[in-house]
Amino acid sequence: QVQLVESGGGLVQPGDSLRLACAASGRTYRQNIISWFRQAPGQEREFVAAIGWTGGSTYYADSVKDRFTISRDNAKNTAYLQVNRLNAEDTAVYYCATGVISNSNYYDVSAYQYWGQGTQVTVSS
After folding, report:
1. What CA–CA distances, in Å, run from 116 to 37, 65, 67?
2. What is the pLDDT of residue 6?
């Protein structure tokens, strides 16, 4: 089993930045990708970003690709999501996820086996 715990969310103003973290434990070596998703109230969970096992490949949703940066530190079993220039549209619970995912369906919620509990990001003036 893999356990994922997100942190770093909070209440911020438009234009602010946050650094979210996803700490992993368990049999993390079996997974080849870590991803971030988000879910706003009344909305479906949507893909945000993904990073491969070595950190050499990254993927972003079009809505965040110019503002968000995903990274990972395998020595610490932790993935990060730097979120910049936040706006109200970014308000959501942010989840990290992992599993044995093919390169073609990293954006698919149903493809992931392990999820964290989520961390709330609220952007409000």
Report:
1. 10, 22, 23
2. 98
